[in-house]
Amino acid sequence: MTDSFKDKIGKGGYGTVYKGRLPDGLLVAVKVLSESKGNGEAFINEVDSIGRTSHVNIVILYGFCYERDKTALIYEFMPNGSLDNFIHKHGSEMKTLSEIAVGTARGLEYLHRGCNTRILHFDIKPQNILLDKDFCPKIADFGLAKLCKTKETPEVFSRNFGGVSHKSDVYSYGMLVLEMVGAKKNLDSGVSHTSEMFPHYVYKDLELDKDENILGNPDISEEEKEIARKMILISLWCIQTIPSDRPSMSKVIEMLEGPLHSLQIAPKPFLFSPTIAAEDYVTTSQPSEMD
Length: 291
What we know:
Elements: E1 8-12, E2 15-21, E3 27-33, H1 41-50, E4 61-67, E5 70-76, H2 83-90, H3 94-114, E6 118-120, E7 129-131, E8 137-139, E9 146-148, E10 152-158, E11 162-164, H4 166-180, H5 183-188, H6 198-207, H7 211-215, H8 222-238, H9 249-257, E12 282-287
Antiparallel strand pairs: 1-2, 2-3, 3-5, 4-5, 6-9, 7-8, 10-11, 10-12
């Protein structure tokens, strides 16, 4: 299938990905999982979670191999690679980035609300969003995913970030969108900001109407600037410190598809959540917020 693992197309924390071809000519991506990841947990997570899905914005799992000396997953091949590579090469194409943001949001909404069993991804980042030949985004890499009953979500509390639930995926999505518009790269240049301080620099430039500081490109058109501003405003709602203050992915899609003038600037997030006092992570189970 892979011609003895001849064509390596990627490498991540959970394994190496090779290009392959099925007997009928269909191109596939074969991810061979690292043996060091112990007990096959990542493998079981991927098969158990992604095997339940069927959505245009979720990568297709065609099959898997589970033998003593080889554990592999066979996915559809994504010719345009990861969003991470696209950002570095085409970071100024705001219209395409906006479409990718909408598609990714639809995929997350499906995982949170469209499956019989809610799936929490827990690893939303540019490297795990893949692009097909038409730049349609597909969420991949479910090695950290958790399955939950539809009505309940396990909550993991930390003193800095509050509850970790489906709203954690919303937070990661917000940070993803800021990276897509170039905010993190341009604000990090010259000065090193922690992830907690980073949103405050975005707010400062928004309040001063200094979009060019955030985008790092004063020459983009007004249409592109409007698209970028909308994406930034929405992302700031997604990264609110307290999970219940973050919108659902359904609301995010509604905001992305609505007009810019209907969006308000989100409240500034706290540097540390005032509601969380636990010294260590504590796991509980409680009904999740849908909106």
